Amino acid sequence: MNTSRVAILIANEYQEMEVWYPYYRLLEEGCQVAIAGPEMEETYESKYGYKATSDISYMALDAREFDAVIIPGGYAPDHIRRSREAVEFVRRMDEGGKLVAAICHGGWLLCSARIIEGRAVTSFSAIRADMENAGGEFRDEETVVDDNLITARKPDDLPTFTKEITDRLNAK
C-alpha cells in the first residue's frame, strides 16, 4: 500500500473532475490526500457549484511533508497563482524533486512558479502561449512527463494523467 502524502490545490471555480478523479484514485492507492485552499476548513465551489472543503491552507503547506502536489484546472489556478504561499510551495516541491502534476489551466501556476523553462509540457490549448512564453516546450499530447513534472490537457486525459501520478508514487 502506498503511503505517499499528496496535496491537491483548490480555490473557487475549480474543475470538478480534475480534483475528484485523482483524489479518489489516490485514496484507493492508500495515499494520504489533503485538499489545500486559501484558508483551512473553508468551502470552495467548483465551476458548477460542487463544494469541497479544504483540509489545510496554502500558508500551512510545507514541501518537506508532501510527496506530490496536484494542480487541477478550471478557473481556480488564476486565483491560486495570486497566493505567494501556493506559488512558493509548488516551487519548493519542484526544487526538492517531488512530483508536481498540473492539468488544464493548472499550468498557469507552473508559469507563476517559474519551473517550466526548457521542460516538455502540455496544457489546455487556451494557455499554450502562456506555457511557451514561460519557456516550456509545448507538446499537444494527453499527458507529458518531464522528470518530476507531469502535465495534461483536459478532463479527457485524466486516466493517463492519474496513472502517471500513481505509477510514480508507487515506484518511490
- CATH fold-level assignment: Rossmann fold
CATH architecture assignment name: 3-Layer(aba) Sandwich
Label the overall shape.
Answer: globular
The secondary-structure element order is EHEEEEEHHEHEHEEEH
Number of beta strands = 11
Euclidean distance between termini CA atoms: 12 Å
Please identify the top-level CATH class: Alpha Beta
Question: How would you name the CATH homologous superfamily?
Answer: Class I glutamine amidotransferase (GATase) domain
Topology diagram in text:
Layout: E1 5-9, H1 16-28, E2 32-37, E3 43-45, E4 51-53, E5 56-57, E6 68-71, H2 76-80, H3 84-95, E7 99-103, H4 107-113, E8 120-121, H5 128-133, E9 137-138, E10 143-146, E11 149-152, H6 158-171
Kindly describe this structure.
This protein is α/β, with parallel strands linked by helices and 172 residues long. The protein has one domain: Rossmann fold (3-Layer(aba) Sandwich). It contains six helices and eleven strands. It has helices at residues 16-28, 76-80, 84-95, 107-113, 128-133, 158-171; strands at residues 5-9, 32-37, 43-45, 51-53, 56-57, 68-71, 99-103, 120-121, 137-138, 143-146, 149-152. Strand 1 (5-9), helix 1 and strand 2 (32-37) form a beta-alpha-beta unit. Helix 3 crosses helix 4 (107-113). The termini are close together.
What's a quick, concise take on this entry?
The chain is of the alpha/beta class and 172 residues long. It is built from six helices and eleven strands. It has a single domain (5-171), classed as 3-Layer(aba) Sandwich (Rossmann fold).
